[in-house]
Design goal:
By secondary structure, the chain is an alpha/beta fold. The chain has three domains: 3-121, Response regulator (Rossmann fold, 3-Layer(aba) Sandwich); 128-302, Rossmann fold; 303-378, Orthogonal Bundle (Helicase, Ruva Protein, domain 3). It contains 20 helices and 16 strands. A hairpin with an 8-residue loop joins strand 11 (253-254) and strand 12 (263-264). Helix 18 packs across helix 19 (439-446). The radius of gyration is 26 Å and the shape is elongated. The model is unreliable at 378-413 (pLDDT under 50).
Length: 467
Amino acid sequence: MTTHVIIVDDEPDILELLTLTLTRMQCVVDTAANVKEAKRLITENDYALCLTDMRLPDGNGIDIIEYIQQIKPELPAALITAHGNMDLAVQAMKAGAFDFLNKPVKLESLRNLVNTAVTSSNLPTPDINKTEIIGQSEAVKLLIKRINKLSRSQAPVYVSGESGSGKELVARSIHQLGPRAQNAFVAVNCGAIQKELMESELFGHKKGAFTGAIQEKQGLFKAAHGGTLFLDEVADLPLDMQVKLLRAIQEKAVRPVGSEAEINIDVRILCATHKNLEQLVEDGEFRQDLFYRLNVIQLDVPPLRDRLDDLPYLIEGLLKKITKTTNELPPLLSKNAMLKLNDYPFPGNIRELENILERAWTLCENNIIEEHDLLLSNKSVDMKTAKLSGASTQLEQNENAAQQPAYIPGKTHATIDDYLNEIEKDILHDILEKTRWNKTLAAKKLGISFRSIRYRLSKLGLDDDES
């Protein structure tokens, strides 16, 4: 299939370089030296990509991008701008640009952009059923519609929403529906990395770069090359790392710790946090210029309380997920249990709903979840049972109130779920040692069903500890 590309630039040297490069990539190239000629060619032809300079004799590249958005919004358009002029690149992406290139143009970056754009042009109409987002509410339909649109662009997206609302799932859906779907989706929780190791984790390091660097490490940017890097809880980045991240986004290159040379990287940046970034910028805790680069497009994820119509679909999907490893039929919910969930505000959103259902499944009898199995009104639940079921109601509330990583002696920045899993492992291992790994007897002593203990052992990776 012939790849038809248009380049808009009034500098003959730039036109010649770009045309030669793209011709070698088996592209058929048309050129235009001004906005008027570009609009005529775009109207008359079907292109897979438009590359336009910012400054043109009769206007600018953003004029062309806005024109494309009006008549052929499916056509990827990329802006070529002067080195260091990121404000114009951001302005262009807000107007609908697919991506941007800095002058002097790096040929590797140009090739990466063209390949991604051509892939995007050839993508079929997005199939909403390909996303893992569950629901039929108007809020979810609008969310999926925006995901479909954003998946075609390479613009950075800031996914905002409360903790537990599914921000990573939204980011993963943007990746899966876009031109980078065949490459890596790398998610990193910025709040879970030790400050001293953050630069190495993100950018990599050379062997011997610091004490303990016994071998070379590629870093998460390099691991996501060609794909998507999702920076979760980006608000937790320390200020010195915010500066380095800003430079990596602007230059599309990273410098591993201990290296003198930069490595070109081709990644799409998505980020999220449950915190208010705008307020953090006002308070001086988050760089305004980085916020401006990351927040090219903001996508709000609705909390569960604003989409309670989706509750039956979510419950069905989560129970299938919970029981998948045991090959058992998902439990049913009694009418009273369903009414109870409908009246609950879900401060922890979908993550809390999953915890509630997982706990209820381990406690229920005859594979039917009753209202009392939900433990939503029983604040004095036995802590042993609460630990074995993943988290008590109080602990869930603490998690959603604090939203900060827990610290475990000897461990680095664990989440509350990690903390509870460690407690649960200790309890299970101790009781199984005392019962000589008689699971039936251990379940009886703990006051839970055999099915429940078998599920917990499988989930925590203790199945084979006996041997």
